[in-house]
Amino acid sequence: MSKYKPSNWHLLIIVAVILSNLSCAKSTKQNNNEYGVLVLAHGSNNDSWDNSIHEVIKSVEDTYPTQVAFGMADPSTMQPAIDSLEQSGVKKIVVVQLFISSHSPIIRQNEYLLGLRDSLADAPMLMMHHTMVSKDELTNVETNSAHAEHGMDHNSDGDTELKQLNINAKILLTDPLDDHALVAGILLDRINALSHNPAKETILIVAHGPNGEQDNQNWVKSMENLANQIEIQAKEKNEYFKNIEYFTVRDDADADVYEKAKQHFRNAVIDANKDGEAIVIPLLLAQGGVEARYVKRLEGLTYKWSGETLLPHANISKFVELAVHNAINN
Questions:
Q1: pLDDT digits 0-9 by tens, 278-328
Q2: What distance in Å separates the CA atoms of residue 52 and residue 105, rounded to the nearest whole number?
Q3: N or C: which end of the chain has fewer CB within 10 A?
């Protein structure tokens, strides 16, 4: 398994050097097709969401045979993508996970399906389609169970028939976005687009979050690392925010956990406005309806919001290129 996770924003310099070398390498597509690339990302019934992923991988497609498998650890999309890559002759497949966090059953199920775990670590997810919702659907969504809300279901009788994929190629699995310096750079750009008086502004970075408590703690720790990097990068530009906070909204958790997270979100905005301004930044890969749920939760409150997600931004393409480069060369 190949992994890459810079712990400090200074590594952006290294990123720039590597990407410069990559631009030269792209001029000649590998003739022997030794390596292929499989990109895993949430799917959507929103064409613009899926199209944004295809835009991101264009630079990689210029160099390697590339497939996208949409869904949440969904074997019905992953197997055909792997079959297609193997039919093109690749012997090694770099699997790039375009998910926000490593701390999720989705990632562990990916590892199992790809043969990197001997057994499932969690209850199998047998309906992995990801259904984005429109604003018109939000009223019903907020009153439904969290699993129905997110378009994800688990096998209710505990059946573990989910089988590993048929793979002949060697799998090189890369880390999700997590606390990558490139992600911190995007978030700072989103903040700066709304910021006018940093000294009075509290930045609230909000993410979807997992169900499990340990996963959630790890997810929030990763967000803390992002917040620290944002603060450092901002200070380099002589920007000093009053505060940077971060938390998850636990969309898929049980009702009591969900409601507690919702109230925490609202209270954070209220507190930020007592002697300053609140800027709310969603930590989501792309727009598709989920970001509108956050607005629904904050009805009646005052805050700055653009709804801009990580995509579109050039840093995500750089992230994919860098993940592939390091998987192959490490």
A1: 999 999 999 877 889 999 999 999 999 999 999 999 999 999 999 999 999
A2: 24
A3: C
257: exposed, middle or buried (C-beta count within 10 Å: 0-12, 13-18, 19+)?
Answer: middle
DSSP secondary structure code for residue 26 in this structure: T
Containing 148, the helix (H) or strand (E) segment is helix 146-150
Closest CA to 230 of 209, 203, 197, 265: 203
Closest of 273, 257, 261 to residue 305, by C-alpha: 273
Among residues 308, 46, 21, 8, the alpha carbon closest in space to that of 187 is found at 308
pLDDT score of 29 more than 60: no
Angle at which helix 290-297 crosses helix 255-272, to 10 degrees, equals 70
CA count, 13 A, side-chain hemisphere, 322: 28
Contact (Cβ atoms closer than 8 angstroms) between residue 33 and residue 63 = no
Give the Cα separation of 241 and 247 in Å (integer). Answer: 17
Closest CA to 38 of 177, 170, 131: 170
* pLDDT (tens digit per residue) in 250-289: 988 899 999 999 999 999 999 999 999 999 999 999 987 7
Helix (H, G, I), strand (E, B) or coil at 38: strand
Backbone φ and ψ of 246, nearest 5°? -155, 140
Q: Following DSSP, what letter does each residue of 253-308 receive, concatenated?
A: S-HHHHHHHHHHHHHHHHHHTTSSEEEEEEE-SS-SSHHHHHHHHTTT---B----
pLDDT tens digit string along 137-183? 333 334 333 333 333 444 434 445 799 999 999 999 999 999 999 99
In the beta sheet, which residues pair with residue 95? 38, 173
